[in-house]
Structure formats: C-alpha cells, structure tokens
C-alpha cells in the first residue's frame, strides 16, 4: 500500500483503511467502539483501554503475568515516539480481543509477514491489560528528557543482603501484561516486541502465575509459594481516598507530565523453598506473624483483623515478634505508608543442583517509591527473619505515565509533547 506508513496503518480504524482502498480486513479487526467497551463479570471479557489512569494497576488482579523490560536501541527521538504510537494502537486492539495489526494474522498480503503472530486467534480478550513504564535510564540525555526526570525516579538505594543481577534489572521501558490466559499475555508482549524490532530490544522478561495479591475487596487474598497470605493491608481499588493519597501522582508532586500516573517497583525474589519446607509450622508462623491457615495476625481470629502488636503470649513476650514480617511491613511502622501490590509466583525451572528456581515476582505501585517502598524495604532487609529463606535477585523502577484518554492519544504523550 504505497503512501501509507506502517505507523499510520496500525492507527487506522476499519473505516479509515477502507477509505484508503485496503483489501480484506482481518477477521478480528477492532471496531471503533470496542476500545471503550465496559467489562462484564466474565474473566474472558475485555477491560477498557482508555481512561484517566492506565489499566493494570487497580484493575482486579488477573491470574497470569508476562512482564518485559526493553532497552531502547534507536537514538532517534522521533522514532521512539512513532514506536510508542504504534504500540498504543496495537495495545488498544489487543486488550479488546483483537489482532495487533489492521490485517491480523491471516488477512494481509501472503508474501509479506502477517500483522499479528496468530497464537491468540480464537481466544477472547481474557481481561488483558497492558501497562507501560519509563525507567530512569531513559532520561540519560539520548532523547532530550534529562530535565523531565522526576525526583521520585531517582535510583533505588542498595539494600542489605540483595544480590541483584544487572542483566535482569533496570530497563529503559517496561510493559506489564496481565491476563487470565497465559497465551493472551504472551501474545501481547510478543507482538509489541515484534513491532519494536530495530528500535528496542528485550532486556529481560518474566512469566508469572497465581497472583499473590488482591487489588479489589471482591477478591480473596491468594497465597505465595510459601503457603502464606501476605499483603493483607494492600491498597484496594475501592479505597478512593487512600488511592489519591498513596497511589496516584498529583500536580504538586513536581513532574506535571506524571499527573494521574504512578511509580512501579519490581523485585524478583527467589525463595529457598527446600529449606522453608523443612521448617516447622510454628516457626513459619512466627516468621510471618500470621497463622498459615486463616491468614490472621497471631493472636487474632480473622485475616483482616487489625494486628495487636502489644498483645503478649503466655511467656510475657509479644505474640508478634518485632522482627516478624507482618510487623516490619505494616503501615503503622512507616507513618501509614501503603503500597498497591500485584505480584505473581514464578517457577523458572531448576538451578541445576536439584533446587527449584522459584519465588515471587514482586510488583508494587505507589505515589513516591522513596517515601513508600524504600523505608519498608530497608526495614525488611535489615531485620526480617524471613531473609534467611529469600534472596532479591533483580530490581526495577519505572515511572508509569497517566492513561491514554482516547484514540488520538498515545502512551507517553505527556512526556514527549
């Protein structure tokens, strides 16, 4: 199709392509109204793509994750903006259960590569959300963004005991794909990587299963691979006031382009589960400060009962030790600071020594990581007895821009315009 760039082709709706004289449209092409469809109660239904905030943050946490960090390889700012526009158009389509490109997996010219890789043909939207973020390294001067770097995006400090691997940490860009079907999540990341060929390269990616946090009061608190419920004090989408105070960036925070956005911290935490599995139940519960069955704080009856850190046991000592995980992570220990967590379990095979390479891919959103995540993690790194059984091996920090308002908007417009 001479005269129409690939970027513009991706952005055209069905009517626009027809007017341009295009051939057969893809079976799964995106109707104009689909991008604003409202989800029903089914896990197969689409989540709206457009809005004040990006989907995939307060969206009720889906069952599967494919997270990817990219390095930007182009040095051309205009090429990067073009890519973000292409990605936005593809994301708007895929989150509604459609192909990544206008002609789809089978509707284009047979002699040319398809506009979609095809492994999601016939599958529903499955609650897919795609959430983009910008890492500190994107603001290094290559694209004229150095003076737009938010103070909250300053690199995280080195925490005691961490053993970070540079090759699976950091990144210029990240995309978080969450869905109820792993193939749908993988398809979305695969197609964004395909579209970005020559402009970005994959730095690392992580598959996750079995969400470890609930982001809505309609969801039960899940369990991590240690068998415990964690993050009971997590922010929920129903907590409108607390979301305003602890999650969403405001104009007065100093980077106007981030208004309505948030900040993401990721940590890949490997669990020494073979050692954990040989630890007594009593010790496991003392380490977490929770009962393993109900998930209640020790001394309490129900999961959501507020912990009583002053309560004493028969020996006169606090039922919940000062170094218990629940005590060190609790908002009351950090001036009320809260996080919105939506992490996932992972099992990445074995380490060659008969041990599973398994653990938690920690994901937390917040208004300012240096006032929220950092003090919590410093306390945990210094005192948490759980550290005997875990090791932090990767880390990421990303500025999550506000949502895409409509079809004329794109990921990162507020930063680049």
TrEMBL record:
GO terms for cellular component: cell envelope; cytosol. It comes from the Bacteria. It is an enzyme of class 1 (oxidoreductase). Keywords: Heme, Iron, Lyase, Metal-binding, Oxidoreductase, Peroxidase, Signal. GO terms for biological process: iron import into cell. Its EC number is 1.11.1.-. Its cofactor is heme b. GO terms for molecular function: ferrochelatase activity; heme binding; metal ion binding; peroxidase activity. Binds 1 heme b (iron(II)-protoporphyrin IX) group non-covalently per subunit. Residues 221-404 form the Dyp-type peroxidase C-terminal domain. Its main location: other. SUPFAM superfamilies: Dimeric alpha+beta barrel. The keyword Secreted does not apply. It holds the Pfam family Dyp_perox_N. Residues 54-209 form the Dyp-type peroxidase N-terminal domain. It is found in: Cell envelope. It catalyses: heme b + 2 H(+) = protoporphyrin IX + Fe(2+). Involved in the recovery of exogenous heme iron. Extracts iron from heme while preserving the protoporphyrin ring intact. Belongs to the DyP-type peroxidase family. This is Deferrochelatase. It comes from Acrocarpospora pleiomorpha.
